[in-house]
Amino acid sequence: TQAFLARIDQHRNLNAFVTVSAETALQQAQAADQRLAAGNATALTGIPIAQKDIFCTLGIKTSCGSKMLDNFIAPYDATVVDKFNQAGAVCLGKLNMDEFAMGSSNETSFYGPARNPWNTDCVPGGSSGGSAVAVAARLAPAVTGTDTGGSIRQPAALCGITGLKPTYGRVSRYGMIAYASSLDQGGPMARSAEDAALLLQAMAGFDPKDSTSVDQPVPDYSATLNDSLQGLKIGLPKQFFNSQLDSQMAATIQAAIAEYQKLGAIVQEVDMPNLELAIPAYYVIASAECSSNLSRYDGVRFGYRCQNPADLTDLYTRSRGEAFGAEVKRRILMGTYALSAGYYDAYYLKAQQVRRLISDDFKRALSEVDVLMGPVTPGTAFKIGEKTSDPIQMYLEDIYTIAINLAGLPALSLPAGFIAGLPVGLQVIGNYFNEAKLLNIGHRYQ
Ligand code: GLN
User: Fold this and answer.
1) Subunit structure of this entry (predicted)?
2) Pocket test for ligand 1, best of 64, 95, 97, 98 (most atoms within 8 A of CB)
3) Which terminus of the chain has fewer Cβ atoms in its 10 Å neighbourhood, N or C?
4) Structural domain that includes position 119
C-alpha cells in the first residue's frame, strides 16, 4: 500500500485520481495484516485497489467527475465497495472519469482529463479513463470501472489492459451513481484476465438492494482459466470487419484471432444486419434515461447549490446550469426532447424497438457460435482535444462496444498488440452469464 501511494504521488501528472485516501488505505492495510495473521484472509485481503469515482464510498468524496458532486460525501458504501471491504481489500482512492460517465476520452471530467501513460498527449479513453490509467501506469494493481456503452472496454483497449463488462444484472448497481440504468454495469479492470477473475469473484452476485440484480449462482472464475479452447467456435460479425475498419487495426485484430486458431478454435463469419443502428438507438435511450436520472440534482437534496437563489425556479435552474458541464447538458436536452409528448413514439419507442432487433441479432449469432470477436475501438488513443469539438466523432468511438450494452451481454477487452507504440484491444463477446468463458479466452492468450 505504501509503495502504491508513493507511486501515485510520483505520477500526479497522469491525473488518474480525484481523491487519494491514504489514511484510510493505511488503516485498511493494517487490518489486512491482522487478518492475514489470524488466517482468515481471502485472495484480495491486503491487495490495494481503487474505485471509479462513481461508486459511493462512506465518508470519502464521490464526485462522479462533476462539479455537481464536488462536495458530496455519501452516507453509505455501494454494494461493490462493501464487497471489497468484506474481502479485506485496501482502497487507495477514487478514480477520475468523464462527468457522470458521459464521454469516451475522460475529457468531460470536471477535474480535467487523465493522461494516457503510453503517450501523455493522448486520451486514456473513457469514461473509466482514470481507472485504465491507474492500472496501465501501475498506480494500482486492479480497479473498478463501469460500462454503459463501452466505458470499461474502450479505455482498457486504449491503455493496454484487460477490462470486463459483465452481463447486465451480474454486478450490483446499488450505490453506483446512475447514468442510464438499463445499460449501466460495473466490472473489473486489471493487468490480466487472471486478476480480473479474482476481482469479478468479489464483485458479482445477487443483491436484494438492486431490483435488476439477477439471482444466479456465481461460478469459480479462476477454476476454468486454463480450459482448452480446442473446438471453440468464434464468430466474426461481418459488420465489424467492413471497409470502415482501419487496415492496420484489422490486421492487428486478425493476427490476434489467428492465435486462437492455433489453440484449436474455429472461425466463421456471422451476419448481424441491425448492428449499424446501435449508435443512434443508444444515444436516444441513454440520453432519455440520463435526463430522468439526473433530475435528482436539483440543488436541494445533493451536491452543488447556487449562491443567493431568488426563488425555487432560480435555485433549480442556476444550480443545474452552473454545475453541469456541456456534455451532460447536451444529453439532458436530447433525452428530455426524445421523451416529450409527440416525440416519444418517433424516438424513444423506435429506439427500444431497434434495441430488440439488435438483441435478436446477438441471440441468433450466439446460437451458432460460442463467442464473437472484433475490435474494441476504431483506432488507437487520440490526442487530447482532437475530438472535443465534434460530439458525433466522439460518439463514433463506441461503434464496436455500444450494441453489447443494448443486448445486456458480457464482453472482454484484452490487449492484442500495438500500432505505432499505442495499444490495441481485442473484444470478445460471450453469451449471458458466461463471463467464465471470456476470462478463460483472455487468459489463454497471454
Ligand atoms: N461513450 C459512451 C457515452 O458517452 C459510453 C459511456 C459509458 O459507457 N459510460 O455514453
Assistant:
1) Heterotrimer of A, B and C subunits.
2) 98
3) C
4) 1-271+359-446
